[in-house]
Amino acid sequence: MFLPHFSPIFGLVALTALYFLAGTVLLLTAVLTLTAMALATAIAERRRAEAALEAQKALVEAANRTKDNFLAMLSHELRTPLFPVFLAVENLQKQWLKNDEAAAALEIIRRNIRVERHLIDDLLDVTRISKGKLVLNLTSVNAHGQIRNVVETCRSEWAGKKIRMQLDLTARDSSVLADEARFQQIVWNLVQNAIKFSRDEGEIRISTANESPGELTIIVQDHGIGIEPEAMNRIFNPFEQGERSLKRRFGGLGLGLAISKSLAEAHAATLTAMSEGLNRGATFRLTIKTSALIAHDGTISLPVQARVRWVLRILLVDDHIDTCTVMGKLLAARGHRVTVAHDMKSALERIEAGGFDVVISDVGLPDGSGTELISKSKNRLVGIAMSGFGTDADARRSLEAGFSQHLIKPVTMEKLDAALQAAMNGPERDGWESALRR
User: Fold this and answer.
1) Are the C-beta atoms of 352 and 341 separated by less than 8 Å?
2) Strand locations in 8-163, DSSP E?
């Protein structure tokens, strides 16, 4: 009965409530719309950023591929002319052993060729390590034997500076678990570093110790120019040599220690440096795990008695005339019968004609490649690839094509002898009845 009196009030309240409700809905709608627009904008910006990042990543990857290809091509172009020079010097050294003046001059040439070869290898190793493509073949290595070999190989350099080289190899357990070539590379870099930064008539001391069970510590100490405290944290960085003027004074790329550090870490080993400052010398310590396996003899070059004992009919394929001339003479001097071809077409013709036991071929040929040559060959031959291209991928391609080995230029005759010996002793020897024993 009282409802008619209150109906206007209730209506007004209801309308007010509806008004505020509608306003709230509109406000929420506006907020949600703005939020959706903001989210859409953020998503669009994120997608644009991701697209830009992908584009930048593609550019970086393309730049890295270009760099890697450039380094591979550069190494090939640098190695190719070094190879015949290296072989010629080796041959001349044997002929001029009794002429001191000539022998000294040839040793200077040989030493500097070796330095150039290591610089080229360092450039490729930096790329290989940075891309995580370093592969180790762990075995038992006689560390003392490797140290002695490196020191002997570097004799002309430290003797030329009248440096006193002191070896104190007293560790009872000197067999380490390592990749032999990479371990030698670490020791080589440490010894070369000590020689480079030692003064004339200085002293270098190399010692070993078993400071902890299952570990060998190698210490290389020099009394040279030392390392500045502020440079200590940078010496293991690529392209660093401490003080900037050192690069101008002593040369080099500043890669040896960086590579050695990375190689040590790949072996789960540690490489550290200590110095009391400039003109106070430096000490490098390499600590690596020992091995209970029978150690190798640690020699670098192939002993005379292990050289090839067969007379082989060899097809030598290389478009570099000087390489063919020098290598052909050196192989012939070992008693082998050598035929030369300078391109894939003529090489295939000679192979199809028959009469060869081994083909030694450069990978890069004017009208094809060594891998094509070995894969297209109908006659069953053992192939040894030689190339200035030295990455793991290059070696893998050679082996997949059918080569038994991939040698990186410049190749010493000892390494080539070892490759021929391995080929003759390998499974490829079946059916080689025509190869004559010496």
Assistant:
1) no
2) 138-142
* CATH, domain range 135-289: 3.30.565.10
Long-range contacts of 161-164 (CB under 8 A, 24+ apart): 161/195, 161/198, 161/199, 161/200, 161/201, 161/202, 162/200, 162/201, 163/195, 163/198, 163/200, 163/201, 163/202, 163/203, 163/204, 164/201, 164/202, 164/203, 164/204
| Phi, then psi, of 281 in degrees rounded to 5 | 75, 180
Return d(Cα 222, Cα 332) in angstroms, integer.
45
CA 204 – CA 223 distance, rounded (Å): 7
What is the residue extent of each domain of the chain? 135-289, 304-437
Residue with tokens 């509806």: 18
- Our CA dihedral for 219, 220, 221, 224, rounded to 10 degrees, sits at -160
Compute, in degrees rounded to 10, the torsion defined by CA atoms 101, 104, 109, 115.
-170
Whether the pTM exceeds 0.70: the reply is: no
Here the tokens at position 39 are 């989210």
pLDDT tens digits along 106-134? 777 777 777 777 777 777 777 667 666 67
Contact 126, 259 (CB under 8 A): yes
Cis peptide before 410 (omega within 30 of 0): yes
Q: Residue 194's pLDDT band (boundaries 50, 70, 90)? A: very high
Measured at the alpha carbon of residue 282, what is the angle toward residues 277 and 284, in degrees to the nearest 5?
Answer: 135
Antiparallel, parallel or unpaired: β 313-317 and 310-311: unpaired
**CA dihedral sign, ordered 248, 85, 372, 137:** negative
* CATH code of the domain made up of 304-437: 3.40.50.2300
How far, in Å, are 72, 84, 345 from residue 318 at the CA level? 18, 12, 12
pLDDT tens digits, residue range 22-73?
Answer: 667 677 777 778 888 888 888 888 888 888 888 888 887 777 777 677 766 7
| Burial class, 115, CB count within 10 angstroms (exposed 0-12 / middle 13-18 / buried 19+) | middle
Contacts of 166 (CB under 8 A, 6+ apart): 203, 204, 205, 206
- CA-based diameter of the chain, in Å? 140
In whole angstroms, give the CA distance from residue 181 to residue 125. 13
Q: DSSP states of 208-242 as a string?
A: EE--STTEEEEEEEE-SS---GGGTTTTTSTT--S
Residue 402 has pLDDT above 70, yes or no: yes
Strand duo 313-317 + 358-362: pairing: parallel
Separation CA 259–CA 126 (nearest Å): 7
- CA atoms of 24 and 174, how far apart (whole Å): 84
